[in-house]
Amino acid sequence: MVVGDVTTGTEVLVVGAGPGGYVAAIRAAQNGLDTTLVDRDAYGGTCLNYGCIPSKALISATDVAHDARNATEMGVHADPVIHTDEMQEWKEGVVDQLTSGVEKLCKANGVNLIEGEATFVDDSTARIAHGGEGQGSETIDFEHAIVATGSRPIQVPGFEFEHDPIWSSRDALEVEEPPEKLLVVGAGYIGMELSTVFAKMGVDVTVVEMLDGILPGYEDDVSRVVKQRADDLGIDFNFGEAANEWEETGDGVVVTTENEDGEESTYDADKVLVAVGRQPVSDSLDPEAAGVEVDEQGFIPTDDQARTNVENVFAVGDVAGEPMLAHKASKEGIVAAEVIAGEPAALDQQAIPAAVFTDPEIATVGMTEEEAEEAGFTPKIGEFPFRASGRSLSTGEDEGFVRIVAEEDAGFILGAQIVGPEASELIAELALAIEMGATLEDVASTVHTHPTLAEAVMEAAENADDQAIHTLNR
Amino acid sequence: MVVGDVTTGTEVLVVGAGPGGYVAAIRAAQNGLDTTLVDRDAYGGTCLNYGCIPSKALISATDVAHDARNATEMGVHADPVIHTDEMQEWKEGVVDQLTSGVEKLCKANGVNLIEGEATFVDDSTARIAHGGEGQGSETIDFEHAIVATGSRPIQVPGFEFEHDPIWSSRDALEVEEPPEKLLVVGAGYIGMELSTVFAKMGVDVTVVEMLDGILPGYEDDVSRVVKQRADDLGIDFNFGEAANEWEETGDGVVVTTENEDGEESTYDADKVLVAVGRQPVSDSLDPEAAGVEVDEQGFIPTDDQARTNVENVFAVGDVAGEPMLAHKASKEGIVAAEVIAGEPAALDQQAIPAAVFTDPEIATVGMTEEEAEEAGFTPKIGEFPFRASGRSLSTGEDEGFVRIVAEEDAGFILGAQIVGPEASELIAELALAIEMGATLEDVASTVHTHPTLAEAVMEAAENADDQAIHTLNR
Amino acid sequence: TPDGRVFAPPAARRLARELGVDISDVEGSGPGGRVSEADVRAHHEKAEEHDETAA
Ligand SMILES: Cc1cc2nc3c(=O)[nH]c(=O)nc-3n(C[C@H](O)[C@H](O)[C@H](O)COP(=O)(O)OP(=O)(O)OC[C@H]3O[C@@H](n4cnc5c(N)ncnc54)[C@H](O)[C@@H]3O)c2cc1C
Ligand SMILES: Cc1cc2nc3c(=O)[nH]c(=O)nc-3n(C[C@H](O)[C@H](O)[C@H](O)COP(=O)(O)OP(=O)(O)OC[C@H]3O[C@@H](n4cnc5c(N)ncnc54)[C@H](O)[C@@H]3O)c2cc1C
């Protein structure tokens, strides 16, 4: 395909090369469709460049230092020093390896790649403006389009990211020299993950959150385990306060917050990380020009085939609504690509797992007990605490638990909540269980390797039927 | 129940309090049976006291030191020092917590506990000799017996464990001061796990193995990954050699080995760990007195209800045959207890997973490609290398792969082999997949959290159908 | 089930779409009425036979 100031054509135009878009493009090409993927910034989108991957890299690296520093009980004495510049270099290497991998995979699968910003002209044409001065633009005709333009961080009025001491998560992930004092506005998953990273780097971290606890949306006994560990790390929490304004002082800033009653508090800090959520990027593409509806929040509504109100235009990933998660984006991308290829695909998954990479991790899938009740089920609950797990104790990570929610009649598994070591990995078995329509008995009868954390999943299933071996059944 | 020099009675007598026996006893009691558990040594058996748990504790603790020592690339600089005595103390604490937990769980479930050595008198009576002088003995009548007497390490002639410099795995796990030079005889899983622990402690480790590679029974490309890492750790391997004799020198020993051609080699060492396999403990109980058959190797043959040739006598765990694994012992224990309680239980599992806790870990379940062929299937293979996983790269652990073996027609999953980070946990999803009769499509369609290692399982399933996103499909 | 949920593995759900079968009409032979691929196929065949006899 010739890229220039000419009109070209493609069967599938994918806009945005994040985990929604690049996965859609690869699968479309695998299905024999002539596919073009355009991005104005970088292969891999937010996730690989400024999100999932860099955050997890810093979490792992600071964990190595933290674990070594706290292993005297195990007989390991170390006084690790962190060189943030080297850590950044390593992280960049990881990101580069993955983003160049994405580029290679796209090419190997025959996807046409274009760098530039796409805007819809109508429902079968887009204009692509190439970055940089005098780079020109091109027009591209498409049979189908997949919008995968992602999301951006929400700004707090007065705390716009262009001011140097005010950081977005992206700025925080790129820091070469950690500040002495960091104020984090927002205790959602991004705020909590990054607070933990900086606390483990030795930064004095204070968190301000409008709501009355961390990680809204998670059950109290789940988030409590993470809050406890964060307290132990020395993170200082202030709930029920909204960031109001900030002001430069001699060598840093002072931030003023206000609570419900209008009472103000002030916090000194060197930098302020604002992590109060993300909002869809639908404006960049002018979806209306193609007749694509956008809702009040900026999301593009889609059906269970990832299709928008316009027959040949699909939307996937963060721009298509909650949950704004990379694997949800990829799943939608795959379904959109298969639907376009004429396959009987649909977003028919029973559950989308989610993980928070705090210390310890949280991972959930499907329904909570409350949600199961609301859906009309009579829930049956099984739990297993990691402190009763041989594997947990033998790794020195024994906080948290596995909870399984099932329905009473046949014991079908409806959901699970895990907080504890490797929660993000352990949830995979339960996601499969839910998709398969597995029962408590199915999970309980499956032989689980000893000693592993996964045994806790089996024991939680047994516990629901009063048959756990390593915990008392209630 | 009165314990003394009188005859008492019990519905179920369980001999041996390892993961086979104590689990059987708890489940029998949960099913309302009057149950008595007897052990001559310690609650938790080999596994909790001298096997799975202490080995995994030392692996975790030395890993923390090793990871910190090798994290300069990540920007973490540390020079950890290991205090083996403290490490032992911590490990003992973990073991104590778990073994006292087992005791409590038995009591809480109403299991009667007796310390002593049991011997069958006939098929409904056993004599229990209490340890220590003048402790006497008692006779116990049983309706059903479950033999769970476990296994012991095989001795190499001339290298009996009573000689101080000759270590069993148990001796090795209890070492307060690591030797400078350790010779390990045997490169099976116990030899390899412990060689890794000692190498990470800074010990100069040499391995001598009769066969021509490490970890017999695992496929070459699986064990190669572990061998490579072991080489990097400085472990020196010598294959095709059998340990012949040893002799004390001034400050250590010299061991002579012989190869097939009768050529001798000699090795200096401070200690010699002999880890050449384990053999069943069936002699301790005099099974013949109850009419229970024992095979030539000392195993007690059982049927799919864990029943021996004698109607009311069951055998579970290592004494009942391969695979000699804790979770296989527990599964058999549960089935025996349920069968005695009149439940329709059976050892009907499709597959028993197994893990080796080397660096990196290996975990397998079900059939290899070769085994699938031998069983008459046309196998379909899917693979995913960890170096293409975002989670692997972002933790700095990117060696190894996931392989899934399925049958061609419907894509039913038959087996899986994983070598790499957290392999022991990742195998759980595949064990459930096999038990559920899941297909490649079922695993591939299940949404897997990003970024996790478990995504590699999904991608391996996709790869088998030429649909992987993050690796080239063959 | 209360929320109209059908318990069936992904492969069975996909097969139902492929054959144009509404999976909530299928009687499941698995535990608790879990629907398998074979159940979907059987339902489809029965429906086709029925269509043929009707026609
Ligand atoms: C700090 C942080 C940590 C996170 N951690 C996780 C995690 O651990 N797990 C997880 O699941 N999710 C995580 N997320 C969320 C995850 O990054 C997003 O859900 C995911 O990136 C969404 O993918 P997407 O393809 O929809 O959009 P994006 O990844 O945002 O990609 C959109 C792409 O579209 C391009 N684009 C936009 N408009 C145009 C246009 N008009 N023309 C051309 N190109 C355009 C952009 O340049 C961008 O590359 C994290 C996010 C952040 C910020
Ligand atoms: C170093 C090492 C590491 C290991 N790591 C793992 C691992 O990671 N994962 C895994 O699955 N397996 C592992 N194993 C194997 C595991 O320990 C065994 O498979 C497991 O312990 C078998 O359980 P069991 O109940 O059959 O027997 P055991 O655990 O051996 O228990 C048998 C018990 O019976 C008692 N007994 C014997 N005879 C009598 C008698 N006549 N009267 C009264 N009591 C008696 C003994 O005192 C003992 O307590 C490891 C083994 C070793 C040595």
From TrEMBL, chains A, B:
SUPFAM superfamilies, sorted: FAD/NAD(P)-binding domain, FAD/NAD-linked reductases, dimerisation (C-terminal) domain
Keywords, alphabetical: Disulfide bond, FAD, Flavoprotein, NAD, Oxidoreductase, Redox-active center
| Catalysed reactions listed for this entry | N(6)-[(R)-dihydrolipoyl]-L-lysyl-[protein] + NAD(+) = N(6)-[(R)-lipoyl]-L-lysyl-[protein] + NADH + H(+)
Q: Which cofactor does it need?
A: FAD
Q: How is the cofactor bound?
A: Binds 1 FAD per subunit.
- Which biological process, per GO, is one annotated for this protein? 2-oxoglutarate metabolic process
- The Pyridine nucleotide-disulphide oxidoreductase dimerisation domain sits at 352-461
Q: What range(s) does the FAD/NAD(P)-binding domain occupy?
A: 11-333
Keyword Flavoprotein assigned: yes
Gene Ontology MF terms: dihydrolipoyl dehydrogenase (NADH) activity; flavin adenine dinucleotide binding
Question: What EC number(s) has UniProt assigned to this enzyme?
Answer: 1.8.1.4
> Which PANTHER family does this entry report, sorted A to Z?
DIHYDROLIPOYL DEHYDROGENASE, DISULFIDE OXIDOREDUCTASE
Similarity comment text for this entry: Belongs to the class-I pyridine nucleotide-disulfide oxidoreductase family.
A further note on this protein reads: The active site is a redox-active disulfide bond.
Q: What is this protein called?
A: Dihydrolipoyl dehydrogenase
- What is this organism's lineage? Archaea, Methanobacteriati, Methanobacteriota, Stenosarchaea group, Halobacteria
